[in-house]
C-alpha cells in the first residue's frame, strides 16, 4: 500500500511553446503533482530524511520548468515526472501541467495535460 503526497498549484515561468512569441516572452505554467509514497517510515521516525522533502521537490520541479524550453507540454510533463521519480521512494507520479495563457483565440480557462508514470516504466528511472 502506498500513500499519496500532493503538491498543487506550483507556479513557474517558462518559455515553452511552438510559437516564437511563447519562446521569447514566456508565460505562466502551473504544476500539480501527486506522488505515490510509503509514508510509514517517516510517520514512525518523525524524520524528514525518511520521506520526500516536498520543499526540495518543488524547487527541482520549478527549475525543470524554468530551463531548457521545449515545444510541447507533453515533453515538459515527462521531464517533471522524471524529476519526481529520481527519488527512489516515489513509486509513481501523476503530473498535471496547466498552461492557462495558451495562445488560443477563444475564451477559455485553462489547458492542462495530466500524465501518470511509475518506477520501472520504459523511459522512467
From TrEMBL:
<comment type="similarity">
    <text>Belongs to the DHNA family.</text>
</comment>
<dbReference type="InterPro" id="IPR006156">
    <property type="entry name" value="Dihydroneopterin_aldolase"/>
</dbReference>
<dbReference type="InterPro" id="IPR043133">
    <property type="entry name" value="GTP-CH-I_C/QueF"/>
</dbReference>
<dbReference type="InterPro" id="IPR006157">
    <property type="entry name" value="FolB_dom"/>
</dbReference>
<comment type="pathway">
    <text>Cofactor biosynthesis; tetrahydrofolate biosynthesis; 2-amino-4-hydroxy-6-hydroxymethyl-7,8-dihydropteridine diphosphate from 7,8-dihydroneopterin triphosphate: step 3/4.</text>
</comment>
<protein>
    <recommendedName>
        <fullName>7,8-dihydroneopterin aldolase</fullName>
        <ecNumber>4.1.2.25</ecNumber>
    </recommendedName>
</protein>
<keyword id="KW-0456">Lyase</keyword>
<dbReference type="GO" id="GO:0004150">
    <property type="term" value="F:dihydroneopterin aldolase activity"/>
</dbReference>
<keyword id="KW-0289">Folate biosynthesis</keyword>
<feature type="domain" description="Dihydroneopterin aldolase/epimerase">
    <location>
        <begin position="5"/>
        <end position="117"/>
    </location>
</feature>
<dbReference type="GO" id="GO:0046656">
    <property type="term" value="P:folic acid biosynthetic process"/>
</dbReference>
<dbReference type="Pfam" id="PF02152">
    <property type="entry name" value="FolB"/>
</dbReference>
<dbReference type="GO" id="GO:0046654">
    <property type="term" value="P:tetrahydrofolate biosynthetic process"/>
</dbReference>
<comment type="function">
    <text>Catalyzes the conversion of 7,8-dihydroneopterin to 6-hydroxymethyl-7,8-dihydropterin.</text>
</comment>
<dbReference type="GO" id="GO:0005737">
    <property type="term" value="C:cytoplasm"/>
</dbReference>
Amino acid at each position: 500500500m502506498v500513500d499519496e503526497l500532493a503538491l498543487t498549484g506550483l507556479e513557474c515561468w517558462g518559455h515553452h511553446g511552438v510559437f516564437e512569441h511563447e519562446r521569447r516572452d514566456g508565460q505562466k505554467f502551473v504544476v500539480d503533482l501527486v506522488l505515490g509514497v510509503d509514508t510509514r517510515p517517516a510517520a514512525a521516525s518523525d524524520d524528514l530524511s525518511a520521506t520526500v522533502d516536498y520543499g526540495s521537490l518543488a524547487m527541482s520541479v520549478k527549475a525543470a520548468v524554468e530551463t531548457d524550453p521545449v515545444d510541447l507540454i507533453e515533453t515538459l510533463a515527462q521531464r517533471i515526472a522524471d524529476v519526481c521519480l529520481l527519488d527512489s521512494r516515489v513509486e509513481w507520479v501523476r503530473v498535471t501541467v496547466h498552461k492557462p495563457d495558451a495562445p488560443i483565440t477563444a475564451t477559455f480557462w485553462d489547458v492542462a495535460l495530466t500524465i501518470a508514470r511509475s518506477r520501472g516504466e520504459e523511459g522512467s528511472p
